[in-house]
């Protein structure tokens, strides 16, 4: 019997059957497809791309228009800081099977959770309103019509897609929407960039000791490191475990932890690098066109798109405006979803975009409420620029306690088990937290100095 087994084994080997195919008979290599790359990436890519929402585009456009190439170095500064805090957020979600709110309600006092979640709800809802307004203005630039119709169209479509689309299909749609951000790389082709000055601005920090300069740095930090991104990425890592039945929280199933952490790091670094590349493209485009032409007062992303027409041409304006619509369609679901996850996990409700509406009615109700209020704010006389400013203030103030909470959470063994965060990642997380604290202090000083001047 043993000899027959050996004989059969040899026969299979020589005939190329089974798994042992001869090298010269190997299957042809698969062709590269971008969709395979997108499929391999996960929450980190969507999180990074959604960071460049219409509100963020307005901030980066204003920075480039006001300060020129010399502000580009901030993108190199923020990249490791945002990558570190986002990786820590993702690790918490993957290890515990819960998002930030889900862990906070299990290990911290209820009042702290309520304050954080309330502020997050307010900031995200105002941000949704501002993004919808910017998207509507961009659509009006492209095809005319009434802004309020576009606000309703974009807002309602985003909510219905989150509630009724299959989760895997919806995530695939969000991944494809990240491609809309390449509009800002394309816009560079229409800008006469002084590449020597641009590279010097990126690689060599040049400080200007004035109020406007530091206000812009604070705005950039507040835009790139936002609390809703922490909540979203942590909750999406937990969500993936509910969708993929082969996955369990690493605290329960230790096997494969190193592979999962490597995936999270690669996903997060690629997502944040993509985010910063797009932000840098917007800054350089604005510097090469608007700043060079002396147009330094840009208050919104739509205004930046409109201002490009006489300088870089109608096509550049159209590309910029299309990017605003595309990034808004990506960011609004993340803003509303992060709010719903934060509230739902804090209340220990059934949560998750993979659940049917009847299985997580309260979760979807919060999502719809946040987006609905965001839509309604566009029907009020509230100044969208003022609303966006206060949203940035709330986000900046909220980011610090959330980051402190996250750093303590990532170090607790009763939360993370053997997978507590340590080493360079841990200290980079604290450095990111310190940078946000300094930015909030600077914002507060600027507010009082500006108010008294």
From TrEMBL:
GO molecular function: cadmium ion transmembrane transporter activity; manganese ion transmembrane transporter activity; symporter activity
Compositionally biased residues, Basic residues: 7-16
Protein's membrane topology: Multi-pass membrane protein
Record GO biological process: iron ion transmembrane transport
GO CC aspect terms: plasma membrane
Chain ranges passing through the membrane: 111-130, 142-165, 172-193, 213-232, 268-294, 314-341, 361-382, 388-408, 428-449
Pfam family, one: Nramp
UniProt keyword list: Membrane, Symport, Transmembrane, Transmembrane helix, Transport
Keyword Ligase: no
Subcellular location: Membrane
Annotated segments matching region Disordered: 1-25
The protein's name: Iron transporter
Origin species: Bradyrhizobium lablabi
Record lineage: Bacteria, Pseudomonadati, Pseudomonadota, Alphaproteobacteria, Hyphomicrobiales
């Amino acid at each position: 019997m043993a000899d027959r087994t050996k004989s059969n084994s040899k026969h299979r080997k020589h005939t190329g059957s089974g798994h042992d195919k001869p090298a010269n008979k190997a299957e042809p290599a698969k062709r590269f497809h971008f969709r395979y790359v997108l499929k391999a990436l996960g929450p980190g890519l969507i999180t990074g791309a959604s960071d460049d929402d219409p509100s963020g585009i307005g901030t980066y456009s204003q920075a480039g228009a006001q300060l020129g190439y010399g502000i580009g170095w901030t993108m190199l500064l923020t990249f490791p800081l945002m990558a570190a805090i986002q990786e820590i957020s993702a690790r918490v979600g993957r290890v515990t099977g819960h998002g930030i709110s889900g862990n906070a309600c299990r290990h911290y006092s209820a009042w702290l959770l309520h304050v954080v979640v309330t502020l997050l709800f307010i900031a995200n809802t105002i941000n949704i309103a501002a993004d919808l307004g910017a998207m509507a203005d961009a659509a009006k630039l492209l095809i005319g019509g009434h802004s309020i119709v576009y606000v309703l169209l974009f807002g309602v479509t985003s909510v219905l897609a989150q509630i009724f689309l299959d989760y895997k299909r919806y995530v695939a749609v969000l991944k494809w929407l990240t491609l809309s951000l390449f509009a800002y790389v394309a816009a560079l082709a229409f800008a006469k960039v002084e590449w020597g000055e641009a590279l010097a601005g990126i690689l060599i920090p040049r400080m200007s000791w004035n109020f406007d300069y530091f206000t812009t740095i604070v705005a950039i930090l507040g835009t790139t490191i936002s609390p809703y991104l922490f909540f979203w990425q942590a909750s999406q890592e937990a969500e993936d475990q509910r969708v993929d039945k082969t996955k369990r929280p690493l605290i329960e199933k230790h096997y494969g932890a190193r592979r999962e952490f490597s995936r999270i790091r690669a996903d997060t670094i690629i997502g944040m690098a993509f985010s910063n590349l797009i932000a840098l493209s917007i800054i350089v485009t604005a510097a090469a066109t608007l700043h060079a032409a002396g147009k330094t007062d840009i208050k919104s992303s739509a205004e930046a798109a409109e201002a490009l027409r006489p300088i870089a041409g109608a096509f550049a304006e159209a590309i910029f405006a299309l990017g605003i619509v595309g990034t808004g369609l990506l960011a609004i679901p993340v803003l509303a979803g992060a709010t719903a996850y934060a509230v739902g996990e804090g209340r220990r409700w059934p949560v998750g975009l993979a659940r049917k509406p009847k299985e997580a009615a309260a979760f979807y109700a919060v999502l719809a409420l946040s987006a609905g209020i965001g839509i309604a704010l566009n029907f009020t006389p509230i100044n969208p620029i003022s609303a966006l400013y206060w949203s940035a203030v709330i986000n900046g103030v909220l980011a610090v306690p959330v980051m402190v909470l996250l750093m303590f959470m990532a170090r607790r063994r009763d939360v993370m088990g053997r997978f507590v965060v340590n080493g360079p990642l841990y200290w980079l997380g604290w450095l990111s937290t310190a940078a946000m604290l300094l930015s909030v202090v600077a914002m507060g000083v600027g507010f009082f100095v500006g108010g008294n001047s």
